[in-house]
Amino acid sequence: MRQHDLTERILRLRGVPVFKTMKAGELAPLAATIRSATFEKGEVLLREDEPPKAFHLLLTGSVTMRRRGNKIRTISAPGGVGFLSVLARTGGGTEAVAESHTETFEVRADALYEMFEDHFPVLLGTLRWLTERMIQENLALHEPPPYTPPPEGFDRLIGDRELGIVERIFLLRRTIGFKHANVNSTARLARGLKEMRVPAGETIWRPGDHATTTLFLVKGKMSLSWSNLEDRRPLVQTVGPGYIVGGAEAIADLPRWNELVTNEPAVFLRGGREALIDMLEDDLEVALQFVSMLGGFVLMAWDRKAEADALVSSRPSREHDAGDSNEPR
Question: Can you give the pTM of this predicted structure?
């Protein structure tokens, strides 16, 4: 590859938020894997029913993004499409269709994962970017998702004595983020967790508090409360056993954006930010699982927005016109 071609690819990669501070030498291996692609109007860049194998940096043209038949938005060059879907690593993601003759730089998913393995700061930066996106999506919610209990309850593990290392490993591996975790790395994290038993009505944190810990909920339901950014309407989400709370802002080193209060006598395991980051650095699969989980949460938020917009646009109204300005950003 000619040097000016490689330089152009590096510069375009720096347009992706998680790459913008990387040195040229660090980006060069990924840039060297990029290939040019061309799509005519109506051709599909990403298919909704397939896990994406690449994301695209648009050089010319525009692309419409859809999820479950609902239009999300139209993206024009020099934007990018598919990065979030690649991070989520699941089928049933986002469909991208060329609206006109479109030229792109195609960045392969496997090359991206290799970069994550070789440069943990890039992976950590991606996690932080995702957590910030997830927090913004939560603040824009009109209705929080309902509580989903674990397939099997944890109450049988709770007694008068403190949870042992075996129970802690069992509990951690029943959460979404750690179900594929290496046993040894899970054990190291589990040993550093502090068990907390608190009564009902206890405030664990408030908005603006410094976020240094993540909670793994074992027993008792809690309420996460915040205000919708659009109309300041108060929202309450119920969380409970099997949930991990507070990890997003802890990883991103951001202040708490909600209030957490116990509804019932509760038991949870509290872990420090650095211990979690150390585990992610030691266990690539767990780190990628976290990336996938957070990417999936953001995509689900997009689904809710697209479905809500589709419902509104289907209602007859003299004043409403479902144009681009009404679509999720």
Answer: 0.80
